[in-house]
Specification:
With 150 residues, this protein is an alpha+beta fold. The protein is built from four helices and four strands; from the N terminus they run αααββαββ. The chain is 24% helix and 20% strand.
Length: 150
Amino acid sequence: MTAEEAQQLILRFDHNVIEHLGLKLYQNRPTNVIAETVSNSWDADARRVWIDFQFGSNDPTQNQIAIADDGSGMSLDTIRNSYLVIGLPKRSKENPDIRSPGGRHLMGRKGIGKLAPFGIATKIDIISVAKGVATDSPLINWFRLNLEGI
């Protein structure tokens, strides 16, 4: 592992952005949260998306929603420099018609949909499988965002 890979993953954001754009915008709207997450799958050229609900526990912290897809995944560099930068737009004035590597028109616009799960959850695990930079072997990147720790 290189020194850069060993660096801690850091979520960067402006003051109160998580509360206003994650909690309040999506609070108690699970279908909107799922739609935002599935749009990320679309942008990653996923052909299939699986959604699994596990509810029924008397302890609400045990209830879970898992969303998986067969999209392109994110490298550690993409996680650090794109996913963990809140509000990073995908489009620019110079390139308003940016597309996914597979040629899809991107659904994401403002770089804030990744906050949607905080409208219904306090902990989010992100697991991404992408091809390695130096090899075609898949690499797994797994990290947790905890609302209380942000």
